[in-house]
């Protein structure tokens, strides 16, 4: 998925937060580059770290929904997907005072049925284009090489400000050890060298239009 925009705009997104030592470092790096991003929030974490969530909102970033927790939506019947999406949206809107427009299903796992259920909850499903590979146990240099290869106007970059765990009802193994703030700062330096401004999805779509393609996987 990408955004058609005539501007030198690239969308930067963060999943799986808020998380202490992740979200705060990312916010500092975004602020120092005058960048704005979209944060796909886990409600299971918003409840634990409401102060961090308030910091994301106060810094002017866009709030979107990642899920009530990190379980695959494809493991639920459609009615349950719709309920979980609607409940997550309502709780995030209550917590942040922002309208929530987007939902990114955990792992990008979706079928036509889950996609329609999300839309019936008043949300637009959003996947991503390039990834910063910040969930893989590789070096920052390898991640940045990937970012340099894939950076382009209208791209939607996947990053993480946290790492889902048992408290989000999943076991994805140990979290990779990395400074998420340092990675963000270096990604934004790459973007600046390409003349790209990092913006939230809502801002980028405000000046362009979404390019969607059917993309389903369980
Ligand atoms: Zn996730």
3D structure, described in words:
The protein starts with a strand and ends in a 7-residue tail after the last strand. It has helices at residues 23-32, 43-46, 50-58, 78-96, 112-120, 140-150, 180-193, 201-207; strands spanning 2-4, 9-17, 38-42, 62-67, 102-103, 124-125, 156-160, 197-199, 209-211. The protein is globular and about 45 Å long. Strands 2, 3, 4, 7 and 8 form a five-stranded parallel sheet that branches. Helices cover 38% and strands 17% of the residues. The model has no long low-confidence stretch (mean pLDDT 95). The chain has 218 residues and is α/β, with parallel strands linked by helices. The protein is built from eight helices and nine strands. The structure holds zinc ion (ZN). Residues 15-16, 66, 70, 106, 164 line the site of zinc ion.
